[in-house]
């Protein structure tokens, strides 16, 4: 195949070889630069983009995480108190009494704690969507799962399907679009109003949060009560959130957790729907205490396997 080249004059052969060598020498840096720009620089840009996005997510979450933990702590205390004193009906205040200054402390303070938590959980969710969450670190993605599950407990009407709940009414669940109305009621700049300011505001007009007040006010110590089924289920997952992200003194040990279920929460009637909710939100592992302590394990495992096949 190179016979033609061998027949050429040696001087011409040298000239051709020299020309090819020169071309190769000239092209090699171009080829290297092309590869470097396409792959190495592209890789560097991707790394820088991912780093900036992750730092932004981390900083944003940090700005709301501490107040969120604090509000979760305060709401947790109130839910523990409710579990021990629900029979006293402190929260079942007459609607006409709520605007009275010396009445209904329990429901007013309960509503304030609940709205504070709702504000910070909504804020945490909104903050991260300013960034590309697809490149977030694993721990941030897991944190978001907890946030979404906690927030949507009160918007998921499907949780009450086994109780024959009428989804067309918002008596025991909140429409998602209304969450902003509730949190704006308590919002003050980048934080929330003080409890004193809240008392003045609720005693003047609480139209915007009427649904929230009624949700708490209509909670009853009845195993078929929609509101209390939601609150009890929510409380169990809230404690797991505090166990994972709170400080040492926020931790609820397993024996105390199990005792609460055995003594107060064992009559939750939305267990199948609750399992479906955990499965849909991919928090089966995170909710293992709820599953093992609230349900008979064999029943739960059967339900989980059945549910996972459908999602």
Question: Low-confidence parts lasting 5 or more residues at pLDDT below 50?
Answer: none
Question: How many strand segments?
Answer: 2
Query: SSE order, as H and E?
Result: HHHHHEEHHHHHHH
Sheet with the most strands: spatial strand order: 1-2
How would you summarize the topology of this molecule?
Blueprint: H1 3-6, H2 10-85, H3 105-128, H4 138-152, H5 179-186, E1 187-188, E2 191-192, H6 195-204, H7 210-217, H8 226-245, H9 254-265, H10 271-280, H11 288-294, H12 297-308
Helix pairs in contact: 2-3, 2-8, 3-4, 3-5, 3-7, 10-12
Structural key phrases:
311 residues; mainly alpha; two-stranded antiparallel sheet; 2 strands
How would you sum up this structure, described in words?
The structure is a single chain. With 311 residues, this protein is mainly α. Helices cover 66% and strands 1% of the residues. It has twelve helices and two strands; from the N terminus they run H-H-H-H-H-E-E-H-H-H-H-H-H-H. It has a two-stranded antiparallel sheet with strand order 1-2. A hairpin with a 2-residue loop joins strand 1 (187-188) and strand 2. Helix 2 (10-85) packs antiparallel against helix 3 (105-128), helix 2 (10-85) packs across helix 8 and helix 3 crosses helix 5 (179-186). The longest helix is centred in the N-terminal third of the chain and has 76 residues, at 10-85. The termini are far apart.
């Amino acid at each position: 195949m190179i016979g033609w080249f061998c027949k050429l004059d040696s001087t011409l052969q040298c000239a051709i070889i020299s020309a090819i060598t020169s071309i190769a020498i000239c092209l090699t840096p171009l080829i290297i630069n092309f590869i470097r720009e396409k792959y190495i620089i592209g890789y560097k840009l991707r790394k820088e983009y991912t780093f900036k996005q992750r730092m932004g997510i981390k900083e944003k979450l940090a700005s709301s995480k501490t107040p969120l933990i604090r509000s979760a702590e305060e709401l947790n205390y109130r839910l523990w108190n409710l579990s021990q004193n629900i029979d006293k009906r402190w929260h079942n205040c007459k609607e006409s009494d709520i605007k009275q200054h010396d009445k209904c402390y329990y429901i007013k303070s309960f509503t304030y704690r609940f709205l504070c938590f709702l504000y910070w959980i909504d804020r945490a969710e909104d903050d991260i969507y300013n960034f590309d969450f697809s490149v977030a670190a694993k721990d941030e993605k897991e944190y978001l799962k907890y946030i979404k599950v906690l927030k949507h407990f009160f918007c998921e009407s499907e949780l009450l399907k086994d109780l024959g709940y009428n989804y067309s009414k918002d008596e025991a669940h909140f429409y998602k679009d209304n969450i902003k109305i509730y949190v704006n009621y308590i919002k003050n700049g980048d934080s929330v109003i003080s409890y004193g300011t809240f008392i003045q505001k609720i005693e003047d007009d609480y139209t915007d949060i009427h649904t929230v007040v009624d949700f708490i006010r209509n909670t009853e110590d009845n195993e078929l009560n929609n509101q209390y089924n939601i609150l009890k289920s929510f409380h169990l997952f809230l404690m797991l959130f505090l166990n994972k992200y709170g400080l040492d003194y926020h931790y609820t040990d397993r024996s105390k957790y199990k005792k609460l279920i055995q003594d107060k929460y064992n009559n939750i009637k939305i267990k199948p729907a609750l399992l479906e909710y955990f499965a849909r939100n991919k928090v089966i592992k995170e909710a293992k205490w709820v599953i093992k302590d609230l349900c008979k394990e064999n029943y739960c495992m059967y339900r989980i396997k059945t549910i996972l096949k459908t999602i």
